[in-house]
């Protein structure tokens, strides 16, 4: 066993010495591998980053959250708009019936929104504000934190008190660094008292953020606009209990909604049950296609690099033919010669792969610190790059190494 390790070590040093003596040729040889690994791992890292961002958005919505709406989020190839256009909007009557009859839910809220509003405080104003209105369980169906203040009380929600919760960007625009709680703002001709400010969240892939929104109780919104009108996007948001699967919650919700709308068995739904996983599943299909594209583009570069490595290894065998003959005449076994050239080819590819990974890492630093976008370069992608490099080295170097190991020592010395 010790002899085998010693021979492997000698083979490694022979290979390292050959690479060191031909620096320019070594660098040119590994360029193809470097570009290929860089392309593949860059694509994988970009896809992982997008997938993580998407998962954060889904987590913010809640993995067990369903939205009862008129229109579906995803349409098929043949878009049957005529089926959806005559559907009824979710109503307060639907909401009250669902609230009384659903059992597997953590919370249920009726929501409506009015965009493009102006919010004023003294001489300060913020434009293009999205005004959201929600029933009392809004805080149970959406995930958010407060940087200041609180949520509506039960009494404020029931009576439709003129209270409001501001997004972080709205509070900053109106009050600067001052406290917002207790101050009165004006929007849609009404004075509203600020009771809370949402914690700053930032934008995500699904556009879910409270930063530029304000929230009022649904019973207050009824006095400002028709919350059941289609132009205000009425919807019913349902969040299932943590210990109940989404399929079970969805099945119960669909059954109760069909019962409320008195739909006959076999009749199509006149409502849509949307969920964040619909979007994430669609994007997963896209991510798979991007991954395949990365393999194809990077694969061509690696293929060219592999042929380059094989060509250089044949040249290397030719240059060292007499040395191989001397080694064999002194007792070197065939596998020693084979390992010597195999290590050289694998070392070349590993160097190229390491350089490609280093370039990807530098890209992640640029995006993280200059563009403020965190790119994921995880251990899985690093191991993938190293594995691909080693495999290409083994495949590219095998035939040149095998031909070297089969040389006749007398003929080799005479060459």
From TrEMBL:
Residues of the ABC3 transporter permease C-terminal domain: 296-409
Pfam families: FtsX, MacB_PCD
Keyword Cell division: no
GO cellular component, one term: plasma membrane
Protein location: Cell membrane
Membrane topology: Multi-pass membrane protein
Organism name: Pedobacter nutrimenti
Keywords in alphabetical order: Cell membrane, Membrane, Transmembrane, Transmembrane helix
Gene Ontology molecular function: any one: transmembrane transporter activity
Every MacB-like periplasmic core domain range: 26-254
Similarity comment: family membership: Belongs to the ABC-4 integral membrane protein family.
Protein name, UniProt field: Putative ABC transport system permease protein
Annotated PANTHER family: ABC TRANSPORTER PERMEASE YTRF (PTHR30572:SF4), MEMBRANE COMPONENT OF TRANSPORTER-RELATED (PTHR30572)
Acetylation keyword on record: no
Spans through the membrane: 28-47, 292-317, 337-370, 382-402
